[in-house]
Known about the structure:
mainly alpha; 3 helices; single chain; globular
Amino acid sequence: MHLVQDHNIIAWIILGGLAGLIARMIMPGRGPSGCIVTVLIGIAGAFVAGWLGQQIGWYRHGDGAGFLAAIVGAVIILFVYRLISGRRC
């Protein structure tokens, strides 16, 4: 049982890293950097996409977002970050 959970966490990290990396390629420029931050942006993007999908009615409660939706969510996070950080300067 623990082995399955460990693989699930590893899959989240790998897919989050890929989603974050692709989101950074779509929106190059200023932004938080580093491997860990990129993974966290991708994972957070999956959560944002899943939440938005549930609000719109695309996903039921408990359904997760797909890989493409995670990329879109990560792009949204980067966009909001740039809006907020641009106003501070």
